[in-house]
Amino acid sequence: MLEHLIYLSPLLLIFSGIVFYALVNFRQDETNKCFRFSRILLFAGLVLNIIFYNKPMIAEITSANRLTSSFVELLYIGALLLVYLARKWFSNMKQSGGQFCYMLLLGVLAGSLLIVSKNLALTTATLILFVFANYYMLQKAVNKQTTEIGSLYLSAATTCIILFMTALILVYRACQSFDYADISAYLANSPHSLGVFAIGAVLVLGYMFLFAAAPLHYWLTEAAGKMTMPVFAYFMLLPNIAYLLSFIRLNLRVLQPLNSELQMFYVGVAFMSMFVGAVGACSSQNIRKTFAYIGVYYIGNVFLVLQHMTPIAAQTTIIYWIVYLLAMTGLCLTLFSLKARGEYLLTLNEFSGVAYKCPIVAITMIFFLFSLLGLPPFTGVLGIFAILNNLAAQNHFYYLLYVLLTLMMIGYAYLHIIRTLYFEDSRNNFDRVDLGLSCLLIILVILMIYLVLQPQYLLAQTWLFEVL
Amino acid sequence: MIAFTTLALLGIALLSSIGVGVKKDKLLSFFVFILLGVVFSQFCQAFLSGQEQTFSFLWNSSPSGDIKIDIISNAYHYNFILPFFIITLVTGAQNLLFRYEERRSLYNAMLIFNLAALILMITSNNFVQLLCALFLIDILSMFLIKNPQAYRRYILLNMAADMMIFTVLAIINCRIDSLDIREILRYKQMGMHLDFITIIGLSAVFMKMGFWGFNIGFSGLQNIRVHRLLNVLFLSSPVGALILLMKFHVLWNSSIYFTPYLHCACILSIAGGFIGSLLYDNFKKKIIYWQMMFWALMLELLCFQGFVWVDNNVYLLLQMVTLSWCWYLLYYHCRRPNSVQHWLQQKYSGQMVIFIALMLMTLMVAAMSGSLTAMYNSGNRNYIWFFATTFVLSMSTVIRQIFAPKKTKQLPIRSNKPHPFSYLLVSGLGAFISQPQYLNVLPVYGFTSAFVFLCRYSPLWRLQNLYRSKLLQNNDFIGMFYKYAFIKPLRYGGRFLWLLIDHLFIERIVIGFLLSMAQSGLRFFRRLHNNTTLGGTVIVLILVIMLWLSYVWGGKIENV
Amino acid sequence: MFNLSLMLLLLPLLGCLFVLTSQKKGNNAHHVTLFTLGSGIFIILRLFAELDLSQKGLQFIHQLNWLESANIRLSFGFDAFALLLLLGIYISVLIGVVGLDDKSKKSKSLLAWSLYLLWNITGFLGANDMFSFYAYFAGMLVPLFMLIGSFSQLKKKNTFYLFFLFNFAGVLILLCSLLLVYKFYHGNLQLQEIALVHLPPKVAQVVWGGVCLALLVRIPIWPFHYWISNIGSNIKNPLVYICTNLLPLTGLYGFMRLWQLTIADSVRPYILLLVVFCLLSMLFIALIGIAHKDFLYKLFAYMTVFYLLFLLSEILLSSVLLADSLQMNIAYSLFIFLLVTSSLIAIDLRLEKECMEKNCEYRGILAYMPRRSKVFAFFVLVALGLPISSMFWNNFIIISALFNFNFFIGIMVMFAISLISVSILYELYMMRDLKKRATNNDIEDISQGRFAFFMVIIIIIFLSFFNPLWFVD
Q: For residue C231, how far is the Cα from the chain centroid?
């Protein structure tokens, strides 16, 4: 019992923090305190996770291996980074960051559980937790006049959760277990029927909604343009770390028997997401919205690869996603770095001539954008290489062509941003870039360069196959 | 020996091209002339002693064989080089005596480089050497002309001719797979397109020689100084073209088009030269037309003697050059009147000098008649008669036009008249090349008498009225033909293609279509992409359809 | 020697980093760039000295185990062909750097991106395996995009985007093609081993057709010429212009490397189409060159015609005997071609800029500038193929071989070359013609220093006439 408690300690620590937040409502002038408190909690949680990296919290419903612990650690690191960034934002805007920290910890808690979960009930519960955290974030983030986005999110999320729970109940009725392995066995042994297909489809739909894959992307792309910076960064980074691994596990451990039935649906979602992401990124003038669309595009690629629920596809997806997350982290950092007269930049026009005033931010932004585009020698080439290689290996030549086409379309959006940054005259008086942020940007760039020089840390992880 | 001469010439030319001040320039040009004289004397000694040597230097290698620099000394080459050496030497002397160049030594250097290039061309056994020397002559001609306004067409046309020669040699080389000129006859056995290369090659030769119909390149030369003009006409590209023809006639001769084309061009050039020299007011133009007639005759003569360069060709060339120099002295003596109309009106002092010059011209006409008589045979007689008649008539008419009428204006004498030694030099040369053994024949008497008679009573002198015709004088009809037949269509064609393909097709149609498609797509996307019931319904519909399709086709789709 | 080749591969990148970190005061960045280029040229000459010209294939091989699990081992090496081109490229960039005005000399981003591009080109020319071949091929796009975007006055932004996107499409096509090879071979191949991979005929057609297309995108063959010409006409910075015009060279080099090995066999049914496109493009661009009054456009047309000539030679003559020797002829020609075109670009763009600043007539301007006129005239004459550089007789051999292959092709090629040569020559005349100019303006002649620099280039070119590899002996 004590052993389990010890293994659970990271979660308990975060949970106690959440309870503490619920009891103590931080005032505006105590912003620094709450961030410091969150930082300590997250750091301690990270350390504990590293120590107990291969120890499952509750062996029956969770699993622990190098992959899950890596993702959990990534989640903590991302949360720590967000705390660091959000503190700057809240201090600058003179707002209380208590509730943000509260929701962030809730997100981390849900994320940690989601990553390690091997039980559909736990997964559903954590997803509900995530939905709650997300909704609260959205409500806090979106301006009052646009709370309809929050309502829309809530109604859609509720529908998804109801569907998800219906699937849960149906599954339980069928196989008397929530364990992934049992459900998978049930699905494998069931005849090809609409009901079985519906279970799989509903589960996938739930993740689609959370990922904001097209056509269920609207909540994120619309809200992104109106979010505050910390919330935007939260949505772009933190949940995505947890969702991906959870989704991969669901695919490999549960839905694999339905692979052939779902394959076309995945391809459809992928095609649509890639198209919507690319076109949306090109058409948007709001930089955060553009990035949100870029996220949709990348989700499309993930679905395209995961149409084959194989370990190789999963590995490809993980590589691709890590590269994407690194680049997106960099982009979020650059958005935090750029201010004009104390205001964070929102529309693309405001970025005109950044290169002349803030060269380091501009050059790093270019680095991340070209990385997302997959041009060598930037890190993104590893992701693109992995995806295209996977498609070529599976003989999906038409899909390959489609990826190239959409990549060119989204390339237009990147070029547009770069053009604004570099080739247009400066219209804004940009504030001085925070030294800490500059350092973080440089560290991230160095890390990404290192990954290109030593790709085995990303590409050649043979142990991934074991755990997948 | 020729190799030594070439190297010595190159050395002298390099020395002469050293930039020195104005004062030292005269000294340097004198020194260069002395050196040139020494080299010439050595050359003559070797010529007379009949030395035969072969100098061969492996320059480079290529898939078609080695590229060698061959300078072969033999009697034939000596004979071929000799007139050009003499012209260069006399020009150098003139340059020394009469200050018409600001930078004499530099001008001398150009002439000597040009002579070296001519020698390289004459002695070449290799395509690359031949082409190098030919192109070098063309580059040097640009410096000889100096005036960009004047050399525009000349250079452009020469460039086109060079490209044609380049094409011909490339075709020959590709067939025989050898760069050796001596092997070109192999092309005849294996080669195709013989007629094509003959026509192209001959056309290039005609362009370089300024034959009628191809003479637009020479029309701009009326704007340069007469001594430069003469050097271009008798030492530069036309000579290059002559050498080229001498080298390749063995091959081109095999084409059925060679002889008719050559004759046709020559006859037209003699006729065209005759008409042109009478119609145009510009004195330098007249010289250009006479030169056209002369080179046409020279080609005809060579054609009938199997393209073998003989002594008479040397004499004939030198006689023509001397005749031109007589005109040149007269021209300077009479204060450089570009227009014959001006010449008509002016009174000149020093009638004695004019008389001597005219006498010398008469002597040269007699000498030319003698040389032509010596070369006269049943084959070329018609051409010789034709040339001799038109040439004598044309030149005597111009003399009649200039010197017979009463002068109305007395203009002051200019100080920069030719040096007395210049007259002596030309007279001496004239005497040296007169070939007395041929002077004492009936045709010579006939022609000389006719020349003298026509100088006073030429029936065509009234053609001088045409000098006032602006339509005739200000328009270059052949140039206009080229302009409207080739240049304008090419330019308009290029512009049209640019507008049609680049602007209309790519920019307007392809890019425009892509952009409008993208914009329409974006508009549609935005319209669909808003928070409305319709949008929601569409999304749900899409989802349902996708799921349904996936369920129905699930597991049936193959990898595409 | 192994270290020297590695140094050469890394030198421009190091130079780029030094430029980025150099102080803003003075011309530090400029000096660093000059030093980098000078060192690069020195290393290339040193490599040439050690090169065994009789040996076939790449030398100074340097290998790097990039990703062992995926069997991706990067390999680099140089042969005489690559080194000669590289030398030409380094000198071209040097010409561009020397041709910069005082303001541009201080631009760190310009110099850094140029060196970064040079790094990519060096890597591309030295690439001996599929993966690095692709990586450097694609890597050139970023610096080029930044250079063009930052230092050109493009009014039509769509053209600029399309230029990039077309090239990007080429890069992606190349990637896909190489991934297909990777699929069949399961590892990174050395370029010379590519021919050993047995692909099913249809796959081979797709793969090598893709590679061919990717390389063609870089060469201004119709309709790809449109983007390059549009971009070029808006660039007023000599260094950027020179860098942009190195892009077709990379495509051409790709052909040189891969055509003989494998592409030719796979795309044989389409060779005729390619040749027809090449010829029509040559004629079309030569005609447009005649129609334009702008010297720079004529120069672009000239460069295009010659790039296409070299491409055509490579396509058609790869099967003939002594193809390797012909390839060296192309390399000699290309070397001079790079030097001459870069010099002309540097001189002309500066002249145009000065004319624009002083608001004076461009025509006849050289009549007042003896030094500029001399070097300009020399470079134009070399460009025309007159016998003052090795370009003359190498072109003769190449064209002769083309005639040997097909008479009609040879005629078309010669016609296009003649048209564009006459057109360029006419422009030289216009710039030297005193009568085209009413007055003398205050535009100064090139400085003594620059004149001396161009004289050095002239000497290099002139010496190459006697022996293209004179610096080796």
A: 16
Q: What is the pLDDT of residue C73?
A: 84
Q: pLDDT (tens digit, 9 = 90+) per residue, C122-164?
A: 999 999 888 899 999 999 999 998 898 888 876 666 777 888 8
Domain boundary among A63, A90, A116: A116
CB-CB under 8 Å, A194 with B554: no
What would you report as the CA-atom Rg of chain C, rounded to the nearest whole angstrom? 21
Domain that holds residue B184: 147-256
- What band does A447 get if pLDDT is binned at 50, 70 and 90? very high
C-chain residue closest to A400, CA distance: C176
Instruction: Among A101, A116, A131, identify where a domain stops.
Output: A116
What are C166's two structure tokens?
């077309």
Residues of A in contact with B556 (CB under 8 A): 260
Interface contact flag, C183 A456, Cβ < 8 Å: no
Predicted confidence at residue C39, as pLDDT, reads 95
* pLDDT bucket at C414, cuts 50 / 70 / 90: very high
Residue position matching structure tokens 């045709």: B443
Q: Please, what is the average pLDDT of chain C?
A: 86
Single-letter amino acid code for the residue at C60: F
Q: What is the nearest CA distance from A356 to chain B, expressed in angstroms?
A: 31
**Would you list the DSSP string of B217-240?**
HHHGGGGS-HHHHHHHHHHSHHHH
> How far, in Å, CA of C434 to CA of C439, rounded?
9
C426·B62 Cβ contact <8 A = no
Determine the 3-state secondary structure of A379 from DSSP: coil
Q: What is the pLDDT of residue B532?
A: 67
A388, closest residue in chain C (CA to CA): C176
User: Is the pTM value of this prediction over 0.90?
Assistant: no
Write out the residue range of the structural domain in which residue A228 sits: 117-467
* Tokens linked to C261: 């090995």
Neighbouring chains of B at 3+ CB pairs within 8 Å? A, C
C172 interfacial to chain A (CB closer than 8 Å): yes
Query: Nearest-CA distance from C158 to chain A in Å?
Result: 10
Q: Which pLDDT does position B558 carry in this prediction?
A: 46
Q: Is residue B22 part of a domain?
A: yes
Tell me: ipTM over 0.90: no
Which among A192, A262, A394 has the least Cβ separation from residue B550? A262
Per-residue model confidence (pLDDT) at position C124: 94
For C129, the 3-state DSSP assignment is: strand
Chain B residues in contact with C417 (beta carbon < 8 A):
163
- Residues in B touching C392 (Cβ below 8 Å): 131-132, 135
